């Protein structure tokens, strides 16, 4: 937003502002940041505009033109920004059988969730015909999670009469795919979340914890973090000293950050879940679901949020705040003391693990 206003008034972007943009957009260097910021603005307006247009033509058959336009713009922005807010009392449950609504909302969620850098690379790939390792990993993990989530939700909820059981085969497929996509980042739902089986809630908790991709509009530990830890574990199990992916070697220097992010996130989620479960005397799986949903800034709920006490709501608020900033960024900001150089090197000794 700051960059957009700077563009409007013709202001030059200073070095300090470029460094801030670098941190905000998770970029490796400050080169090309202004150009990336321009593309972000263009992509946002164009994608949300196309989504709103499609939704408008669908809803103008049901509502007045003004109301249809309002609904279309609101839901297009909410979907692309992975906000998950809806203006309908039942979320999007009455549209579970609509291909247009399902496909449009899912596309907006995915485009908003894969990250602006990936969108830019996909846009430029027509000329360059090559993608970076980051983009390939993001797209691979995103596709795997969507497919895995869709198939799992379809199979586990197939006979549950409170969710998919009474739906036609077509609606079951639509709903399973939609819920898999929206569970990681957005928070829309076309079936009642509180009526799902505990096994399905456990699956959605995992999807919410992973979340979207770096530099996107979604939360979670990010798809690349999840992909790298899986790659690291696989390399360790197979005895490989290097991590190779798509004929590229992944720098081992990134692994400590990956482990730190996952550890801090797990500590945050486990601590908040125990506190919420203790204070509210609530079912543990539902408390865990609520906390992970807040951490991933997803917005899904099993239905217990409105009945939470003040203390419970404060826990959820703090978890959302920490999840949006990122546990790593929050921890670093709290460690205000300056790092002291390690001038003493102690003797090395081995510890048994595993």
Secondary-structure class? mainly alpha
Largest pleated sheet: 2 strands, antiparallel
Arrangement of strands in the largest sheet: 1-2
Question: Span from first to last CA?
Answer: 48 Å
Uncertain runs with pLDDT below 50, 5 residues or more?
none
Tally the helices: what do you get?
Answer: 14
How many beta-strand runs? 2
Fraction of helical residues: 55-70%
Shape: globular
The arrangement of helices and strands along the chain is HHHHHHHHHHEEHHHH
Average pLDDT number: 86
CA gyration radius, whole angstroms: 22 Å
Strand content: under 5%
Q: Any idea how many domains?
A: 1
Q: What attributes does this structure have?
A:
single chain, 2% strand, two-stranded antiparallel ribbon, mainly alpha, 2 strands, globular, 354 residues, 62% helix
Task: Give a description of the structure.
This protein has 354 residues and is mainly alpha-helical. The protein has one domain. It contains 14 helices and 2 strands. The protein has helices at 2-8, 15-24, 33-59, 65-80, 99-113, 116-128, 133-157, 169-185, 198-210, 223-237, 255-280, 284-295, 310-325, 327-334, and strands at 243-245, 248-250. Helix 11 (255-280) crosses helix 12 and helix 11 packs antiparallel against helix 13 (310-325). The longest helix has 27 residues, at 33-59.
SSE topology sketch:
Layout: H1 2-8, H2 15-24, H3 33-59, H4 65-80, H5 99-113, H6 116-128, H7 133-157, H8 169-185, H9 198-210, H10 223-237, E1 243-245, E2 248-250, H11 255-280, H12 284-295, H13 310-325, H14 327-334
Antiparallel strand pairs: 1-2
